[in-house]
């Protein structure tokens, strides 16, 4: 009776291994998000689990890249925050948000960008451009107001900035 039980266990294991292999082959043949998710749902602990996760990440990234929107990259990062492609997605999002700030071209838009992507030393790929744009917009605001108080407020923030000499000149005038 022990031999019969052992044979049953061996046959069950062989049958299950065969099922996993067939399911894996089906998932790789389909090569879709749905196919890999279905495979992982049924066989989360299989020997193909890690590879299925990698394939899913690649497919989700391809989807984000093809759609090429803020929403698509944010959706990708919700699903694959720690995967190898997450850094590339984060870089793309940073570019999108910087473009969004540039299109708005307001102090508030650049400040919102800097809140999301702090860059106090100008070391990002944008070379301190958001800070430079904020300074320029603040100077334009002071010029538009054309009051002593406006120029003094500007100089409090940007005493050594690009427009500080011009602001000082306006104060002396």
Q: What labels would you give this structure?
A:
173 residues; 0% strand; single chain; mainly alpha
Reconstruct the topology from this structure.
Layout: H1 2-30, H2 33-42, H3 49-67, H4 70-79, H5 86-104, H6 107-116, H7 129-145, H8 148-157, H9 164-172
Helix pairs in contact: 1-2, 2-3, 3-4, 4-5, 5-6, 6-7, 7-8, 8-9
Describe the protein in words.
With 173 residues, the protein is mostly helical. The protein has 9 helices and no strands. It has helices spanning 2-30, 33-42, 49-67, 70-79, 86-104, 107-116, 129-145, 148-157, 164-172. Helix 3 (49-67) runs antiparallel to helix 4 (70-79) and helix 6 runs antiparallel to helix 7. It is rod-shaped, with a radius of gyration of 29 Å. The model is unreliable at 6-16 (pLDDT under 50).
């Amino acid at each position: 009776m022990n031999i019969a039980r052992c044979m049953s266990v061996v046959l069950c294991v062989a049958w299950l291994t065969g099922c996993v292999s067939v399911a894996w082959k089906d998932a790789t043949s389909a090569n879709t998000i749905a196919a890999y998710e279905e495979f992982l749902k049924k066989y989360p602990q299989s020997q193909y689990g890690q590879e299925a996760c990698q394939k899913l990440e690649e497919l989700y990234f391809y989807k984000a890249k093809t759609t090429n929107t803020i929403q698509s990259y944010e959706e990708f990062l919700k699903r694959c925050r720690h995967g190898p492609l997450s850094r590339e997605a984060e870089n793309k999002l940073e570019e999108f948000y910087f473009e969004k700030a540039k299109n708005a071209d307001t102090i508030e838009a650049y400040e919102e960008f800097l809140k999301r992507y702090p860059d106090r030393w100008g070391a990002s790929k944008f070379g301190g451009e958001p800070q430079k744009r904020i300074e320029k917009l603040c100077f334009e605001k002071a010029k538009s107001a054309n009051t002593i108080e406006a120029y003094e407020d500007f100089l409090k923030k940007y005493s050594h900035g690009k427009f500080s000499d011009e602001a000082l000149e306006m104060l002396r005038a």
